[in-house]
Amino acid sequence: MINPDPIRGKNLETLSVITSNLDINALRKRMDSFGVEIVFPAELQSNPCAVTCCSAMLNLLPRLIPLVRYTGPSILLKDFPPSHLSKINVGNNVWNPSVTIVFGSDEKNEVQNVIYVGSSGWSCYISTKKPCMWNQQPTNFLSALYTAGLVVGEVFKYLLPEVQSEKISHVEYDLITHGRATQPVVKPLLPESVYFEDLIIVGCGAVGQALVFALKSTIRLWGTVTLIDNDKFEASNEQRYIGAFEEHRGMQKIDLLSQWLTQINPGLAILKAPIKYEEYARLGKPLGAEVVAAVDNEKTRINIQAGLPKILWNVWTDTSQNTLRYGAGHHTLDGPYQCAACGYYPTDSTPSQMKMNSIRTGLPVEEVERKLTNNEITTEQDILRISQATGVSLDFLRPNVGKPFHELLHGECGVYRLEFHEGQAVTPAPHTSFLAGVFLASQIILRRMKLDDNAKLMDSVADFDAFGVPNANCLMKKQRNPKCFCNDPAYEKAYKEKWD
Predict the structure, then answer these.
(1) What single DSSP character describes residue 249?
(2) How many CB atoms lie within 10 A of CB 203?
(3) Mean pLDDT across the stretch 424-451?
(4) Those residues with Cβ within 8 angstroms of residue 324's Cβ, 6 or more apart along the chain or in another chain
(5) Which of 35, 342, 384, 436 makes an SS bond possible with 67, Cβ 3.0 to 4.6 Å?
């Protein structure tokens, strides 16, 4: 039987959202009898990509499936703590698996529901027809990790046959051309290292953690990374966090990610801010050249975009419309495509641009509108009132006295007060957050590489069905929303002055 612990409860909650015709008890009964076996031949333990892919599955599947059996060398289990090892059957318990995942070139003709797995270069291989015969070189952990996430999603389909997504029969997909080139795609080779001038990751939850896990597993990093998150690990996180186990309960999330990054990257400086983003912004910290928004509410995403980062990577998961989705966005304010806030305008829960300006300063809408229309100068009385309303120190605001009032409304000034509270979405399953983080890691790295004409990067927004097969059509170019604040001349001018 499945124990009524918070982790299993979250699993059932998520599955019940996407299978509305099942009640919780029926779903619990189905999960009780569902098992997955992973077969990993000993000769592949010297193949780092195969090891990484299999290890990721052994990490994710026991968070969802109560019966997971592993047949292979024990070295792949060495990094898991006791609490997780107890969920993986490596003994001789006899039960017939509902799905068998097979690495290597051996066919399993006597077994039903077999998924053959492999990766090479930038390409992923998933098939129910035949084993992967690719030479699994050169080493590229991004495709190996992405393959693992896709396969865990396939297991979902066997557990939930009523899900309206066709099971994968045979797919060869790559992260550069998105399946349009002859597979496997092995070039260009990964660079030896990636430099971050000033990368800020806001949100170290399931998606942020998957992103950092993929980055630190793939390539040598150097430069500066800032981690912003005020939360600690809880039992409910263990359902979908790649690095969250019972042993981490009570630990700050940013501390674990900091450990990951510094262990093998001595040239990387890690700055930690164990606070909410809005608190960080009110300290007067200007946003750097590259920011990742991996948070769980739209208001903070809007705040981050309003802080005028040069590049904003927006990444999310979603459980709306009885499905599981994940996506990412690449946003700048000087390009033709939408900013991260554009997608949220207009909604009933999102304030208008002028209302937003009023909230950020604490001044009435009519007064803010008058000051902007008349291009008024900021006075000492203005900053006193703003300080009292927002909590920003007078010393920080005082340099704005005598300058145009509109300069108070862009991110450099540090006036932030958007702390609307939203209910979190239903917790997505572990592979959804994992795929989102790994995909974003691939885009961050690929943006720093020289690619040929066949490459297709995310120029605007990527939106994926977590049960579907990814393809080039998932990459969309969305135009700006004319009602969004990114069209405000004050923001455009401030962005240009900050980055030109």
Answers:
(1) T
(2) 26
(3) 84
(4) 14, 18, 317, 318, 428, 429, 432, 465, 466, 467
(5) 35
- CA torsion through residues 113, 118, 124, 127, sign: negative
Residue 55 and residue 43 in contact, taking contact as beta carbons nearer than 8 Å: no
For 35, 227, 358, 406, the CA distances from 377, given in Å and listed in that order, are: 68, 36, 17, 9
Residue pair 430/64 in contact (Cβ under 8 Å)? The answer is yes
Say how far apart CA 141 and CA 120 lie, in whole Å.
9
What lies within 8 Å, CB to CB, of 146 at 6+ separation is 119, 124, 175, 435, 438, 439, 442
Cα-based distances in Å from 60 to 88, 149, 244, 260, 444: 11, 8, 11, 18, 23
Nearby residues of 231 by Cβ (< 8 Å), 6 or more positions away: 204, 205, 252, 253
Query: For residue range 390-434, what is the model confidence (pLDDT) as tens digits?
Result: 666 677 778 888 988 877 765 333 333 233 233 333 445 779 999
C-beta neighbour count of 232 within 10 angstroms: 15
Q: pLDDT confidence of 346, banded at 50, 70, 90?
A: low
Instruction: Provide the pLDDT confidence category of residue 352 given band limits of 50, 70 and 90.
Output: low
Tell me phi and psi for residue 222, to 5 degrees: -150, 165
* Torsional sign, CA 422, 424, 426, 431: positive
Q: What is the pLDDT of residue 391?
A: 64
| Helices (H), ranges, 264-401 | 277-282, 298-306, 353-361, 365-373, 380-390, 394-397
Give the pLDDT score at 421.
Answer: 30
Residue 258 — φ and ψ, nearest 5°?
-65, -40
Number of H helices, E strands in the chain: 15, 15
**Tokens 């995909």 belong to which residue?**
439
Contacts of 390 (CB under 8 A, 6+ apart): 282, 360, 361, 362, 415, 416, 417
pLDDT: which is higher, 412 or 26: 26
Mean pLDDT of all residues in 13-33: 65
pLDDT over 80 (residue 14): no
Q: Phi then psi for 436, rounded to 5 degrees?
A: -60, -45
Closest by alpha carbon to 225, among 291, 159, 278, 180? Answer: 291
pLDDT class for 12, splitting at 50, 70, 90?
low
Burial category of 33 from C-beta neighbours within 10 Å (exposed 0-12, middle 13-18, buried 19 and up): exposed
Q: What stretch of H or E contains 48?
A: helix 48-60
pLDDT in tens, 269-287: 999 999 999 888 888 777 7
pLDDT digits (tens, 9 = 90+) for 357-385: 776 677 888 898 888 888 899 999 998 88
